[in-house]
Amino acid sequence: MKALPARDGAGNGGRRMRRIATGMLVVMAAIYATARAFESAHPAIGFVRAFAEAAMVGGLADWFAVTALFRHPLGVPIPHTAIIPRNKDRIGQTLANFLRDNFLTSQVVARRMGRIDVAGAAGRLLATPNEGDLRLRRGASRLIADVLDALDDERLGGVAKTAIAQRLGQMKFAPILGQLLTAAMKEGRHQPVMDSIIRWLAQVLEENRALIHQMVHERANAIVRWTGLDETLANAIITGLDNMLKEAADDPDHRLRVKVEEGLMTLAFDLQHDAEMQARVDRIRDEIVANPAMQRWLDGLWQQLRESLLRAARDPDAALAGKLGEALRQIGVTLRDDPHLKALVNRFVRRVAAGSAARYGDGIVKLVSETVRGWDAQTVTDRLENAVGRDLQYIRINGTLVGGLVGLAIHAVDVLF
């Protein structure tokens, strides 16, 4: 709606200049008639008549040329007039081709984007948000909030959940887990975990003494039970396991720990290099992703993310004042001051823009062409005339004046020579 006043202003300016140009033509006609009537009274009046006569010819010629662009002069269907209404489809296609060849090619976009420091601008805005355009930030925040509110939450959530699930399904977790395990063991970060496991096993053993006695009693034969050796055997098993766990807890080089570490190193190697182990991890990954509990978790994750985005968009100042704001400022400082990262981001933006132009340029061209083709001839005429009508009326005015000067020069040459 904001463009309408500008078009109305352009139309009013064009109509005012049209009246001036037409008025000049009428004035020249009146001067010509008057000078023709009194030409014999004085030789100088001949110069006035010659100026007015040539000015009428120049003004009429330019009026015809300007009018012929948009309509038939005086409504007479003279050939090669009303040029724009008759050729609107070709004009639309030419305009679309001009946009494609000069603005929407990947080479042009890449060249223009190469002169724009997107990363630096974003870094400065994020690093010093209080110095940025407050209206721009709030306007962008409102736009984001309105877009999030307007989008179909269920469909958008489904798209987000599907994208996350697909991303998880494509990730190779086995090599990552193997590398993490190898790094943890080299730095000794697995020792506290192993200590916790040993303490947990000792506690489980203590809490299940009765169960061990029952298991030994049930599996012993009648003679062993009759002699009471089952109780002795059960106590020996419990005591031996308890002693072994205590020794392993106190001795970092205990053989139990060594065996566990050997097993972990083998597991880490297989995770990184064994195809069968990696396939097993992939199957576990797929089962977890397909589990209904995981789907419910993804639903909850999307809702939390959406609500967080809405809160931040509706109150950008509060969001920028917390941890998120501090993180964004740190990102901005890095973008602003790190030339390597700045070059990387700018190159990425340039590639995205060039790729978008290559991918969607033909679609934009088709949209422009079909939009112009869908307009009626009067709409095209009115819009173009409002856009350039003021300058075209200046052509009529200049034609009147230049024609008059040429006529004056010709008359002077005729009189003097």
Strand content: under 5%
Give Rg in angstroms.
Answer: 43 Å
Number of strands: 0
Main beta sheet: none
Mean pLDDT: 78
Helicity, in percent?
Answer: over 70%
Shape: rod-shaped
Pairing-aware structural class of the strands and helices? Answer: mainly alpha
**What is the straight-line distance between the termini?**
63 Å
List the helices and strands in order.
HHHHHHHHHHHHHHHHHHHH
Low-confidence stretches: 1-8
- Number of helical segments? 20
Describe the model.
The chain is mainly alpha-helical and 417 residues long. Among the domains are: 3-86 and 376-416; 167-290, no CATH class. The protein contains 20 helices and no strands. Helix 1 runs parallel beside helix 20 (377-416), helix 7 runs antiparallel to helix 16 (292-314) and helix 11 (209-219) crosses helix 13. The model is unreliable at 1-8 (pLDDT under 50).
Task: Draw up the topology in text.
Layout: H1 3-37, H2 44-70, H3 83-86, H4 88-102, H5 106-113, H6 118-127, H7 134-150, H8 153-170, H9 173-186, H10 191-207, H11 209-219, H12 222-227, H13 229-250, H14 255-273, H15 275-290, H16 292-314, H17 316-321, H18 323-337, H19 339-374, H20 377-416
Helix pairs in contact: 1-2, 1-20, 2-20, 4-19, 5-19, 6-18, 7-16, 8-16, 9-14, 10-13, 11-13, 14-15, 18-19
